[in-house]
Amino acid sequence: MAVSGAEGMSDKDIIAACNDGAKLVYFSYTISIVVMTFKRSSDVHFIKKGESGAVKGLPYTLLTLVAGWWGFPFGPIYSIMSLYTNLKGGEDVTNKLIVPRG
């Protein structure tokens, strides 16, 4: 599986970084076209320890702000859900993808 932001890192490097505080997250975005609304997830992104997930998710946040609200009735609902996910730094899936070592 390709992980955005982890280019050039081996699986062992990613696991070691995650055990040291890095995380794997995905971001959410919403696109609406009048009566159709699509809520989707990005690819998995590698967030280094100390790096802001909210900043990395900014493109998805901006896309949702521009294109997400227009569908009725789910456009505003899904847009708020996407914005919440992105502004909190993304949905952390590290423990689902990597077994932590204690």
Describe this protein's structure.
The chain is an alpha+beta fold and 102 residues long. The protein has one domain. The chain contains five helices and five strands. The chain has helices at 11-19, 53-56, 58-67, 74-87, 94-97; strands at 23-26, 28-33, 36-41, 45-47, 91-92. The strands form two sheets. It has a three-stranded antiparallel β-sheet. A two-stranded antiparallel sheet has the order 2-3. α3 (58-67) packs antiparallel against α4 (74-87). The model has no long low-confidence stretch (mean pLDDT 93).
Shape, principal axes of CA atoms = elongated
What's the mean pLDDT score? 93
**Major sheet: order of its strands?**
4-1-5
Low-confidence segments, given as residue ranges, are: none
Relevant terms:
102 residues; alpha+beta; three-stranded antiparallel sheet; two-stranded antiparallel sheet; 5 helices
Summarize the topology.
Layout: H1 11-19, E1 23-26, E2 28-33, E3 36-41, E4 45-47, H2 53-56, H3 58-67, H4 74-87, E5 91-92, H5 94-97
Antiparallel strand pairs: 1-4, 1-5, 2-3
Helix pairs in contact: 3-4
